[in-house]
Design brief:
This protein is of the alpha/beta class. It has 13 helices and 16 strands. Strands 3-2-1-6-7-8-9 form a seven-stranded parallel beta sheet, with helices on both faces. Strands 12-13-11-10-14-15-16 form a seven-stranded mixed beta sheet, with helices on one face.
């Protein structure tokens, strides 16, 4: 049995879902999680957890609130000495064999001070470890995101980057890129091409979003609204992991923001996405850019998509599905093999 310290970025649910998938795969090991906000709420239902403030990315009306994000970073810096000392005490108490971080700020810093091996397992480092053709209107966001990732979240011992797209690595990039890690309960479901559309949003929607959904000539099952009942063709569904995955496996296509977890799950089931990246979040733009570039679906930058986009998506579903189903979007076997090696040898094997 190994003792594993696991830091998880808490904004949204994607990081926590990924961390739960890892922890559930290793019932023989003992985990202590460090997280905050949404991630802490999800993780502490199953595992011991210490809440630790981290930089947050507030989203308002489908846009990153940059001033609030900057204030959150200033608060993090102000609390850094106290919180780092707290984590060093927990490391002394828990005596972990290794640590894992999923875009968490304090755990890799404390591990470096304690001499503890720390593996980064996240998607965000695809921004900095790979080369991308960045359009001019995204250059400022790209530069700001690169500075943030390198300055705040790049102090781990090694980097395992999960991604549904694999752009060329930068020279001397100390990272391995692998296909997405998928939660185990996906594998119990068989995909089918049903009539309904799945609409999922983790944050408050942009103005006009529901008007767009009303224009779709299909039933639309909506998750993330905190509403129930029906409104025309919209069916508002309660929060349910099993319900979401069942409806995802059987939908015609999905409409969502551009988070990596939900996109990866949709692609695994062969579902074309229409993604609407959160404005100001370069990683979300990048995910959407590759969805469109690789022919998996469509990306709409801005607020609610125009209704004219609906017939275009509907008429291209067959081609999108063909492109998606030619690829592999499950990296679980490879990822768990690499994690086994890291837990045993405390280092990430070099790429062959």
């Amino acid at each position: 049995m190994a003792r594993i310290l696991y830091g998880v970025h808490g904004t949204g649910h994607g990081h926590a879902v990924r961390a739960l998938t890892v922890a559930r795969h290793y019932p023989q090991h003992q985990f202590l999680f460090i997280s905050h906000s949404h991630g802490a709420e999800l993780l502490k239902r199953e595992y011991p957890l210490i809440e630790c403030y981290n930089p947050e990315t507030p989203v308002v009306a489908h846009r990153v609130n940059a001033p609030a994000a900057a204030m959150s970073m200033l608060r993090t810096w102000g609390r850094q000495p106290i919180l780092t000392r707290m984590l060093l005490r927990e490391i002394e108490r828990f005596q972990p064999d290794v640590a894992i971080t999923d875009y968490e700020y304090f755990v890799p810093r404390a591990c470096r001070a304690a001499g503890l091996p720390c593996l980064s397992v996240d998607h965000q480092h695809i921004v900095t470890c790979s080369r991308h053709n960045v359009p001019p209107h995204q250059l400022a966001s790209y530069i700001a995101t690169t500075v943030a990732i390198r300055g705040l979240f790049s102090t781990a011992s090694a980097y395992l980057v999960i991604s549904f797209f694999h752009p060329p690595l930068r020279p001397n990039a100390k990272a391995r890129v692998v296909p997405p890690i998928l939660r185990e309960n996906l594998f119990r479901l068989g995909p089918s091409d049903g009539e309904h559309v799945l609409a999922y949003h983790a944050y408050a929607t942009s103005p006009g979003f529901y008007d767009f959904l009303h224009a779709i000539p299909r039933p639309v099952k909506v998750y993330g609204s905190n509403r129930t009942g029906s409104d025309g063709n919209l069916q508002f569904r309660p929060r349910s992991e099993d319900g979401l995955l069942t409806d995802l496996a059987s939908c015609a296509y999905i409409i969502c923001s551009s988070g990596h977890t939900i996109i990866s799950e949709a692609l695994y089931f062969g579902k074309p996405p229409l993604v609407i990246p959160v404005s100001g979040a370069f990683e979300e733009f990048l995910n959407g850019h590759y969805i469109e570039t690789l022919g998996y679906g469509r990306c709409h930058e801005g607020l609610a998509p125009p209704v004219s986009l609906i017939p275009e998506i509907e008429s291209n579903l067959g081609q999108y599905r063909k492109n998606i189903r030619a690829e592999n979007f499950c990296g679980n076997t490879e990822i768990f093999g690499l994690l086994d090696a890291f837990i045993e040898k405390k280092t990430l094997p070099c790429a062959s």
